[in-house]
Amino acid sequence: MSRTAPAAARHKRRHSAAQHRFFLTLAATTALSLGATMAPAWAAAPGTVPEPDGYEELGALVGNHASPNGISADGKTVVGSSVGNAFRWTAADGITGLAPLGSAAYAASADGSVIVGQSGNIAFRWTADGGIETLNGLNAQTSFAFGVSGDGSAVVGYQDIGGYSGAFLWTTDGGGTVTPLGTLRTDNSGNSKALGISDNGLFIVGEAENNDNVNHAFRWTTEGGMQDLGGLQTGYSSSAKAISSDGSVVVGLANTSDNYRAFRWTQGGTMESLGTLEGGHFSKANALSKDGSIIVGESATDDQNRGFVWTEQTQMITVEEWLRNSGVSVSHDFTQNATGISADGTVIVGTTEYSSAYIARSGSGIIDVEQFARSLSGSPSARTSLDQASTALNGLHGDPMRNRLDAGRQYLQISTDGGYDKSDASNGGLVITDLTYAYGFEGGITARIAAGGLYTDQNLEAGGDFNQKGLFISPEVTLPVTGAIYATVSGYFGSSSLHIDRGYLNGGALDYSQGKTDVDSWAARVRFDWLDAFKLQDTSMTPYTSLTYAHSRMDAYTETGGGFPARFDESTDHATVWRLGVDGVTPLNDQFRVLTRGEVAYRFEDKTAGTTGEIIGLSGFSFDGQDTDRVWLRGGVGAEFDVAGGTATFMLNASTQGNDPSLWVKTAWKVSF
User: Fold this and answer.
1) Cβ atoms within 10 A of the Cβ of 636, count?
2) DSSP state, 403?
3) Is the predicted pLDDT of residue 45 greater than 70, yes or no?
4) Rounded distance, CA 148 to CA 171, Å?
């Protein structure tokens, strides 16, 4: 159930307060106020700003304008057309094109494994194994497939026959058997179109020309042939669009002296008008539940077409009102039609007034399928800990040449990296801090051991936020190799907890589902420095190169709350990064030194790990990983100064994304003894 506006405001205030406390902590740690560099607590992602009335458009195959035409009986597969391309949508794969430009998908089998439609005016049947296949035995010039049985073995539609349209039944028997269905004329001439088939494949509906040259809705069976279902008024046309599983209920639209009306026909009864929504002059029924008790379609209102739901109890109401009756908060009406319904009547699909596709579920809400998919694929993953491990090794512990010790010498150092990070999926602040103890051994060897903690609070680009808290240890040793060349070998072992508030648009308002999980990570780095290899005037330059490998694992978790919670599978990710850079040290006097750094980094992996799981009660999902920034630059400038018996370091760093934060400050205080 989506949050009310006051609840969403409270969430916003809570997040703002949490981030304010975060800023105060960071300021106290670094002795600087970084608030001006941080993002607002609630910032809409560029390119994903909701419409003024609160509903975000769907990104289809090309831009927007995805039009669903049907849904599988299990409610997990949506089919339709998107900018002239037949498409299949599941939560697992998102929108997938099935055929080239000039195609549309009209119906799916019960489990979504078989899809039918037309491509280039030729009927097709699609399966995952075989892809697009034309229907053997049909006219090769013009044919359309509009319905498929629950098991996918029977397809109905119409084909061109000598300038007339002829309804057909196609079955998989013998590699493809075509049965013409005829017409309602006694001489079997004229036009007919098959537009729907029952789940068991025994009943077919559509429209056909009668002896008065008027198209009427029909129901066809093997035993009885084509039955005229009549019309709402004598002499006016009608067309049947869908039929219940047992063939006892047929729905469609019929013309009257006052425009078209959605109708319901029941076996043993007559055709009855379903009326219109308030203020309307037009209605059309498109689909019905397995038992025929719930009918969906579209109806005009005073100024806009709306999707409707009809039952004996409620009569005709909007899809939004149907949701409100199930306890869902929907901010306003915005559906334009309802084109499909699941067998149990709990899931409805259609198009919004923004030409975007939606899925509505009783008791849960209504979502834009692509925006919701972005919220799933953009949820925090094991990747976040990879970046933190990299920051600890190459930020906090990124200057081993400044921390070498003579034999028998020791030091204690407290270090903090704090700043702002932005990726394609999230943005916000982070703090990583640790305490290091180091000891100098004979032969120029320095050993260090650090222990610390991390905290990050990020806004998710698709809506919502997450925070992560954890602890880590990091052992390290620096030793001479030859001449002025030193090697540093570092390790990192961390464990943290993630608290996620995944946001998504539900009923035109932000809804949230919450999850908690744990993340474990480890990393190793090998770095080589050529100490004071050359000078530029008074600046001593130390070139270096390093290779870092990091691995992270996030436990599986199940969300709670919200209209559409999800279960996320366990995930692992890794990153291998090579860096090449140079450090500069410029002494201004005996106590003060200017520090500079320039670095280029290259990540070997081109994608992050994928995301898999299940929208609870709806469908599984599986998203490919996001593209990585494989090459990025980092620069830094700061100071090191001796004061009060110790050495203080301050350095401002910036990077062009990658595994490093966007902007962060390193501060350190070291006491040697």
Assistant:
1) 23
2) G
3) no
4) 10
| Residue partners of 15: CB distance under 8 A and separation at least 6 | 41, 42, 459, 465
- For the chain, the farthest-separated pair of C-alpha atoms sits apart, in whole angstroms, at 110
Tell me the Ramachandran region of residue 458: left when phi exceeds 0, alpha when psi lies from -120 to 50, beta otherwise.
beta
- Give the whole-angstrom CA distance, residue 521 versus residue 555: 12
Looking at the DSSP bridge assignments, the partners of residue 505 are: 510
DSSP symbol at 382 = T
Q: Please state, in angstroms and rounded to a whole number, the distance separating the CA atoms of residues 483 and 489.
A: 18
Q: What angle do CA 116, 119, 124 make, to 5 degrees?
A: 35
Distances (CA, A) of 204 to 57, 136, 173, 201: 36, 20, 18, 8
Q: Which of 55, 59, 81, 47 is nearest to 353 (CA)?
A: 55
Q: How many residues would you count in the chain?
A: 673
C-alpha 492/C-alpha 392 separation (Å) is 8
pLDDT 10s digits, 345-397? 999 988 888 877 888 999 999 987 778 888 898 888 888 888 899 999 999 99
Dig out the tokens for 208 from the structure: 């056909």
CA distance 277 to 418: 57
Alpha-carbon 653 to chain mean position? 32
Give Rg (Cα) of the chain: 33
- Please spell the DSSP secondary structure of 585-650, one letter per residue: EEESSSSEEEEEEEEEEEES-SB---EEEEETTTEEEEEPPPBP--EEEEEEEEEEEEETTEEEEE
Alpha-carbon distance of 470 to 392, in angstroms, equals 13
Structure tokens at 387: 């970046």
Q: How far is CA 373 from CA 340, 367, 621, in A?
A: 20, 10, 9
Percent share of the chain, pLDDT over 90? 63
- Burial group, residue 31, by CB count within 10 angstroms (0-12, 13-18, 19+): exposed
Q: Do 150 and 109 touch, CB atoms closer than 8 A?
A: yes
* Section 652-659 average pLDDT: 88
CA distances from 284 to 45, 150, 249, 333, 379 (A): 38, 24, 15, 18, 39
Beta bridge partners of 459: 427, 465
> What stretch of H or E contains 388?
helix 383-391
565 to 512, 514, 561, 610, 617: CA distances (angstroms)? 8, 8, 6, 19, 9
What pTM value is reported for the model?
0.72
Q: In terms of Cα–Cα distance, which of 336, 332, 337, 324 is closest to 365?
A: 324
Number of Cβ atoms within 10 Å of the Cβ of 603: 19
Question: Do 250 and 273 touch, CB atoms closer than 8 A?
Answer: no
Specify the 3-state DSSP secondary structure of 285. Answer: strand
Tokens encoding 291: 């038992």
Are the C-beta atoms of residues 261 and 274 closer than 8 Å to each other? yes
The helix or strand, by DSSP H or E, that contains position 23, with its residue range, turns out to be helix 5-30
- How would you list the strands of the sheet with 557-558, edge to edge? 557-558, 566-568, 611-615, 619-623
Tokens 């409805």: give the residue: 348
First CA to last CA distance, the chain = 61
Half-sphere exposure of 588 (CA within 13 A, CB side): 10
Q: Which of 170, 171, 166, 199 is nearest to 184 (CA)?
A: 166
